[in-house]
Specification:
The protein is globular. Helix 2 links the parallel strand 2 and strand 3. Among the domains are: about 140 residues, 3-Layer(aba) Sandwich (Rossmann fold), CATH 3.40.50.720; about 130 residues, Rna Polymerase Sigma Factor, Chain: A, CATH 1.10.1740. The protein contains 16 helices and eleven strands. Bound molecules: NADP nicotinamide-adenine-dinucleotide phosphate (NAP). The site of NADP nicotinamide-adenine-dinucleotide phosphate has 26 residues, from helix 1.
């Protein structure tokens, strides 16, 4: 029996994860789940899965849910400690982290310190302090299994797949091809400055939460994934090749020193990597329709356009600088995406706002500690909001 915690149950990853768990049968049970604001959906999920513990972080959602729990379910107070409590429950065998942004950082660390296996979709903590996160995993005997489709594809293409020792496979890998659909604007003729939130939220291949959908449109998401896989699999930047692959059928590939390339292919459906992270190392039947290679017809590959999508360059530069720069990148991106969705800035101002804060960042030498990453996150948010209010980002030249 696998006792599972689902953090971010009401989100895109969370609802897919619950769908997978419901189909896997009685050996997989939801022990605890969390949401933020979506009380209506969360209540339905709670009554269906009847977990022992539920957390709605938003106080208004908590008030709505109070008194409506089924027998055997305890609604915990709306505070971060409830999420860290869930992540470290002694009887939990697997923690699925489907939280978005830095909100997932503390629950991830709590799960690591409790020596858990974590199915990780929430890539931002791996951007903020990924190398330190991996070091902590070794220290506490915790395991991270990637859920994001590209890191999962790389994980699945590793010859010596061993979630407890990613370094092992590294010597025989010559390159990793990190694929990207290119987002909705890969072939757009009109200026990107006129992009509206509605257009940016209309992703051609994947139906996802708002933040990652905007990050996919700016290609920041690919920059985040590049950082995530460098940290997760101890890959140097030279071994990571970003490839625009509009069909999204190859979810990434690994090239070995003898020239052989192993690629993972499937219909673009997150339930495959989510299920693999849940059942690993077993493979189980899934509801996703198999890929029809005859209908797929063509597979295209292009180099990314760094000039049109400066977020990619910003991400790689922040990772190369190390220290607190990736944490600052991640935090300012959250502020910039939110401001764009609220129509406070233009699509093309997103990288400018991020750059305006990175420019004012002074990192110390050496690997960032978890505390430094959290402090940098808080500092960068404040700075980004100030630069937004003062319109400082307008002067940033990329
Ligand atoms: N969606 C995908 O296909 C996909 C693929 C690869 C990786 N990822 C990564 O997976 C993560 C989740 O993405 P998503 O698309 O599932 O996001 P999403 O649809 O926006 O869902 C986010 C979840 O987190 C909850 N949440 C939001 N803010 C919170 C906060 N401050 N504190 C606690 N809980 C909070 C939300 O609750 P409410 O809805 O109740 O407010 C929701 O359950 C992201 O890091 C993303 O980059 C997603």
């Amino acid at each position: 029996m696998k006792n599972i915690i689902v953090l971010g149950a009401t989100g895109s990853i969370g609802t897919s994860a619950l769908d997978v768990i419901a189909r896997l049968g009685p050996d997989y049970r939801v022990l605890g789940m969390s949401a933020n604001r979506n009380a209506e959906l969360f209540l339905k999920q709670i009554h269906f899965f009847k977990p022992r513990f539920a957390v709605a972080l938003d106080p208004a959602a908590y008030e709505t849910l109070k008194g409506q729990m089924p027998q055997g379910t305890r609604l915990l107070p709306p505070e971060m400690e409830s999420l860290t409590f869930l992540s470290s429950l002694p009887s939990a065998n697997l923690v699925i982290n489907g939280l978005v942004g830095a909100a997932g950082f503390q629950p991830l660390i709590a799960a690591i310190k409790a020596g858990k296996t974590i199915a990780l979709a929430n890539k931002e903590p791996m951007v903020m302090a990924g190398q330190t996160v991996m070091q902590e995993c070794k220290r506490w005997n915790a395991t991270i299994i990637p859920v994001d489709s590209e890191p999962s594809a790389i994980f699945q293409c590793m010859e010596e797949t061993d979630a407890n020792n990613y370094d092992k496979a590294n010597d025989s890998i010559s390159r990793v091809f990190l694929t990207a659909s290119g987002g909705p604007f890969a072939r757009r003729k009109q200026a990107l400055s006129t992009v509206t939130p509605e257009e940016a939220l209309n992703h051609p291949r994947w139906k996802m939460g708002k933040k990652i959908t905007i990050d996919s449109a700016t290609l920041m998401n690919k920059g985040f994934e590049a950082i995530e896989i460098m940290n997760l699999f101890s890959l140097p930047e030279e071994k990571v090749q970003i490839v625009i692959h509009p069909q999204s059928l190859i979810h990434s590939a690994v090239e070995y020193v003898d020239g052989a390339i192993l690629a993972e292919m499937s219909e673009p459906d997150m339930r495959i990597p989510i299920q693999y992270a849940i059942t690993y190392p077993k493979r189980m039947p899934s509801p996703v329709k198999p890929l029809n290679l005859f209908q797929a017809q063509k597979l295209e590959f292009f180099e990314p356009d760094f000039d049109r999508f400066p977020c990619l360059e910003l991400a790689l530069a922040a990772q190369a600088k190390g220290s607190i720069f990736p944490a600052v990148l991640s935090a300012t991106d959250e502020v910039a995406v939110d401001a764009f969705l609220k129509r406070q800035i233009k699509f093309t101002d997103i990288p400018k706002l991020i750059y305006s804060v990175l420019k004012e960042t002074y990192g110390r030498a050496g690997r960032v500690t978890l505390n430094q990453a959290a402090e940098a996150d808080a500092w960068a948010r404040e700075k980004a909001l100030a630069n937004l209010a003062e319109k400082k980002y307008k002067k940033a030249v990329l």
